[in-house]
Amino acid sequence: MTVMRMYWEQMLSAVQTIHEERIVHSDLNPANFLLVCGQLKLIDFGIAKRIPSGSTESYSHQKIGTVDYVSPEALKDTGKGQNIGRVMIRMGLASDVWSLGCILYQMLYGHTPLADYDFQGKLDAIMDESFIIDYPKWLEYNPDGTIKETHEDEEEKRKGADLSEPARERVTAQVKVDVDGIDTIRACLQYDPKQRPTVPQLLQVPLLHPGERLMDIPASR
Question: Does domain 1-134+178-208 have CATH number 1.10.510.10?
C-alpha cells in the first residue's frame, strides 16, 4: 500500500497542476502517466479542454475519453448542439476525478470497475445512475499470482469457517482491501459530478494520511 499511496499522490499532484490552470485532461488513464526518474508525469493533452473564465465547465462536440475511465457526463448529449446538428457534451474538472477513481480502483483490484463488461455494456453501466459498482472487501492471491476477489456473500461464509489444508494450499495470501481506498473510490465515482471531491480534497483524505482524519468525504455509489 505504501508504493500505491506514493503513486496515487503523484497522480493527484499532476492533475492538480493542470486543474489550477482550469484545464480538463479528458482522458486520464494509466497509459497517460509516464514514470520519469521515479516521478509520474502526466502526458497526452490531445483532447484536453480549458474551462472558460467565469465558468465551471467546458463543452465538446464529441464524446471523449477511454471507455474504462470515462465519466457519465462525457457520454451525455446536453442538447446544446441541436441547432448545428452536433452532439454537445459537458465536461468539468469533476470528469477527471471520475477517471482518477477508476484508476485507483484498478490500482487496488488489478482491473477497472467494468472490466467484465463488453463495450456496450460498459457504456450502459456508466450511463445508468442506478448501477451499483462492486467493491470486494478481500483479495485472495492464487499460487500463480493472479487475484481472486472475495465478495461480501463469500466474506460472510468465511466467518467462523475453518479452511481445509487443500484450500489453504490453493491460496497463497489473503489481503483485506484498504477501507480508506474503497471510500475514496466511492467518492470519486459518484454519478453527480457536483458530489465528487476536488483533487485538493483527495490529497487530504485518510487514504494518504493513515491514522489521521484531515478530511472525510461522502460516499454514496
Answer: yes
